[in-house]
Amino acid sequence: MSPSAGSVRPLAALASGPLRGRIRIPGDKSISHRALMLGALAIGETVIEGLLEGGDVLATAEAMRAFGATVTRQAPGRWTVNGLGVGGLLEPEDVVDFGNAGTGVRLAMGLASNQATTVTFTGDASLRRRPMGRILDPLRRMGVQVLARSKDRLPLTLKGPDVALPIDYRVPVASAQVKSAVLLAGLNAPGVTRLVEPVATRDHTERMLAAFGAAIEIETNADGERVISLEGQRDLRPQSVEVPGDPSAAAFPIVAALIVEGSDITVESVLLNPLRSGLLETLIEMGGDITIEKRRTVGGESVGDIRVRASRLRAVNVPAGRAPSMIDEYPILAVAGSFAEGRTVMEGLGELRVKESDRIAAVAAGLAANGIACEEGPESLVVTGGSGVGGGRVTTHLDHRIAMSFLVLGLATADRVAIDDAAPIATSFPEFRDLMTGLGARFEELEPPAS
Ligand SMILES: O=C(O)C1=C[C@@H](OP(=O)(O)O)[C@@H](O)[C@H](O)C1
Ligand SMILES: C=C(OP(=O)(O)O)C(=O)O
């Protein structure tokens, strides 16, 4: 049973008046996980400001405690981690449960399996369905023994080798989680772990490893691919980490403001790393009135305030090559496409089938339930704008991004849009409802189904 089973919270979004105001969204989820993990490996105190306090990141905080690090919440968003040194994690006494968090469990499998301990990992019903072989394959090559049920699904047990082997690895799927798991495992391998990344994905692990003092080098080979080399068994130095606002969370108010007539909002301090900015680029191509103000650097990353005004959108073809820079944003882009003139074509989406839900199928079903024309291909979605009326009830499949995307849809359709469960939103954006309500969004709680 999933942690959220038994506390299902159906919710509807109602047609809303113009959205207005300024908001600050919480810290980036990817950076928050990594700050806790590297803090757990550095000897001394790492201070994190602006940590995302969503369910996924809290699961990572709890896991780092289970590995023996001292993790303390000093104030809202301000956390300290006292780590144990590279290779110094303790063997947890119990199964380590990452709830809904793919990033958390996959990075932690790399982090914890480069030393001679035995750890059992699990997660909720959604996470137990997701593929782990992509992480286990390189870890097996590094000498890790794996006991997993069929198809390498959670729960599974990893027993680290006495000495991990550094490997040369070509990342076979565009995945920052796979890249990061191998790099974290490489931290305690004697010698150089070398990764070739044919398609560039978010680079937060590389940036943070460099900031913590790891011996990491990044080059581009003759084929234009990123090559990352990491020399293992070096100490990490504790850091002060300031976490910028999460662009994947900001995506929801941004699209809401574009499609709700008369809106004018500003989302402050959003991470603008180009490997995360595909959605902004696409929305601007669609004619979205989006301006970036006060560009600055926070914690080594570019950030800015994003002003968004309601706009007439036109459909575009989103190139498949852009997918890694907006992989979590396709559900909300499909909602934007529902209000654009023409057919928005999204390709290269194979990875969406193995997220918290099969997001291609979940988006197609949700749009159809609301009268929006959508064609689903094996790795693509095509949304025809202008046809939507709302009025549907959407199944969210324990997927926070499906839940938030369809609530945003309902703010702009004539009839309300209901979702079967808003509880998973707390995994990545607990403040979603309050912040959106503050801008003028209207929601209505619905009766949970009789059990
Ligand atoms: O490394 C990360 O922090 C993430 C990588 C992406 O997953 P994949 O690596 O599976 O593409 C993304 O979908 C996830 O939300 C966060
Ligand atoms: C895919 C996501 O996260 P994860 O893989 O960490 O569960 C997401 O947040 O959209």
Automatic annotation (TrEMBL):
Active site: 328 (proton acceptor)
Binding positions for 3-phosphoshikimate per the UniProt entry: 29-30, 34, 175, 177, 328, 355
Primary location class: cytoplasm
Assigned keywords, A-Z: Amino-acid biosynthesis, Aromatic amino acid biosynthesis, Cytoplasm, Transferase
Domain Enolpyruvate transferase: 16-434
Domain of life assignment: Bacteria
Record's keyword annotation contains Repeat: no
A Pfam family the protein falls into: EPSP_synthase
Family: Belongs to the EPSP synthase family.
Protein name, as recorded: 3-phosphoshikimate 1-carboxyvinyltransferase
Upper classification of the organism: Bacteria, Pseudomonadati, Pseudomonadota, Alphaproteobacteria, Hyphomicrobiales
